[in-house]
Amino acid sequence: MFKRIRGDIRCVFDRDPAARNIFEVLTTYPGLHAILWHRLNHRLWSWKLKWLARWLSTFSRWLTGVEIHPAAKIGERFFIDHGMGVVIGETATIGDDCTLYHGVTLGGTSWNPGKRHPQLENNIVIGAGAKVLGPINLGENCRIGSNAVVLKDVPANATVVGVPGRIVSETSETHKKIEAMAKKMGFDAYGMQKDTADPVVTAINAMLEHMQQSDKKLEGICEAVKGLGAEVADSKVSDLGSCEIVTGAENSGVSNSSPGLSEKDS
User: Fold this and answer.
1) Distance (Å, rounded) from C-alpha 100 to C-alpha 105?
2) Distance (Å, rounded) from C-alpha 113 to C-alpha 258?
3) 239 burial level (CB within 10 Å; 0-12, 13-18, 19+)
4) How far does Cα 15 stand from its chain's mean position?
């Protein structure tokens, strides 16, 4: 028990750059206080002193704003950052080196007895306000984004965002090409996932994918025409990275007329 407590204190310095010394951590970190109380309450629960464990857990919630059921199983080097609003249910199981931010709920979706809360493997980070609900399993090294609602199992090394939670890790060749094109155009490809609810982001993703597919088809057509003996001009397509964007006052001096159109037509 004391070994786990020492690990809980040491891990604060690894995960919070604001931590300066042990005295400050012991006296001003409510997340750590909640964990220390839980270590005691869980031991009392295992000794069948369940009412006392529940009463002390309620007292701990009043002091720290963190509610942890005494029956919950928590591994070593567990860290709750800020702490306020965190709820961990009775049958929840948390592995080693996990981190929870404020407002996280490890809750249940059923009133039936038995396993009804999540199981977290090792080295998991759950962002502020996220809800992980039901008897589901979160694999090692996975990350849950802020305010996500996770209702299904999450494989190891995955990143989940959104409501309901969706895995956003994509490693296909097509997605890599889209990311490269997006970077050339000056967009943040990391925030442009297909499953993002923002309609503007969805439209940009569709445009980039269409451009990538069109380029691929055009290259195939040119190769087929060359194979038939026809001559195809090898005109170089301008690189998106070298394109200049005209904005603000510069845009006011650009003519709206186009080649082949008269002043009247334009």
Assistant:
1) 9
2) 73
3) exposed
4) 17
pLDDT digits (tens, 9 = 90+) for 211-257: 878 888 888 888 888 888 777 666 665 555 544 444 444 444 444 44
* CATH top-level class of 2-167: mainly beta
Q: Strand pairing of 159-161 and 166-167?
A: antiparallel
Q: What is the pLDDT of residues 83-125, one digit of tens each?
A: 889 999 999 999 998 999 999 999 988 888 889 999 999 999 9
pTM for this model (two decimals): 0.61
Question: Edge-to-edge strands of the sheet including 67-68?
Answer: 67-68, 87-88, 105-107, 131-133, 149-150
Of 103, 90, 107, nearest to 130 by C-alpha is 103
Residue position matching structure tokens 């980039």: 208
CATH 2.160.10.10 placement within the chain = 2-167
HEC assignment per residue over 40-70:
HHHHHHHCCCHHHHHHHHHHHHHHHCCEECC
